[in-house]
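Assess this:
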Amino acid sequence: MTRVFVVDDSAFIRKALARVLAREPELRLVGEAASGIEAVQKIPEADPDLVTLDIAMPGMDGQQVLRALLRWKPDLKVVMLSAHTREGAEATIEALASGAVDFIDKTSFNLMDLDTMRREVIEKLKAFSNGKAQPAKRPVQSSVDRSAIQAAVARCELCVIGASTGGPVALQRILERIPARFPMPIVVVQHMPPIFTRYLADRLNSKSRVEVSEAEDGEFIGPGRAWLAPGNFHMVLAPSAGGVRIQLHQGPPENSCRPAADVLFRSIAEHYGTAAMVVVLTGMGQDGLRGCEAIHEAGGSIIVQDEATSVVWGMPGAIAAAGLADQVLPLHRIANELNRVAFLGANRVAPTLANRIGQ
């Protein structure tokens, strides 16, 4: 059983979360606080496994409480509750960088019935309940035959990344180690709502040597840049006159996600085939699994983050368990592998991607 403590200055939010938690045998509410000061006083005695923490509170705000809690218990799992506003999005991105494991957009809580709130909130909390969001374990190979990987190096023209829970920090760890002259474009799907993706892109850009931006419909892609799919839009790549463009659309959500990694991965399999290097990072659920099946069939290469360094080994674990991963790597080795593949490939073959975009 996971012990949960709720911190929010809204009595409505505290009451609503208490009601849905009471229906969950795997989760037990062990305390509530209506302010940051009250939270830091009560939480050590309650000794929870998981804290839901409001970002915006008068006096001691969520950021300050988060830092205090992680000093007290570095492995404490803290899920931020954020409003869907510019201030809320900026503060949430900072909280994730400071050690929060995830966030929940609470803007529409007052419009939800208990069943809807359970789906939107409790299932996310269960991701941190004794590994419930992880797939059943099966034997996993750490890599395929090295000759096959080396053969793929000469073909790679594009890096594609999918991530969810824990993804913002993992993306920063990778992108800050990518050099400005990186010879491949990078396209990213991170599960996040609108506004949040814009501020995540801004933060990643401030921490990276490659330029990182939220994708816009119709943009050409090219080496040395990274594009992040905007919240509430699927992103695909498609050839067009003069190069390869980003296309955004609002087709139906897949895996309850928009953007979804599966949508992007399928377009990559169709247009790039063997020239794609796909990376699946930490995240709950199985988004990316079907897309990786298409990538695998098309001859592309697939790297997944390993269980030990993932916040939740749902997305990467599902792909590894299905036998689709060419390599299962800890987070700190993924950037090294991308650099190795990119620069060896650039030295071995003509720049076919550059030809496609007219460079």
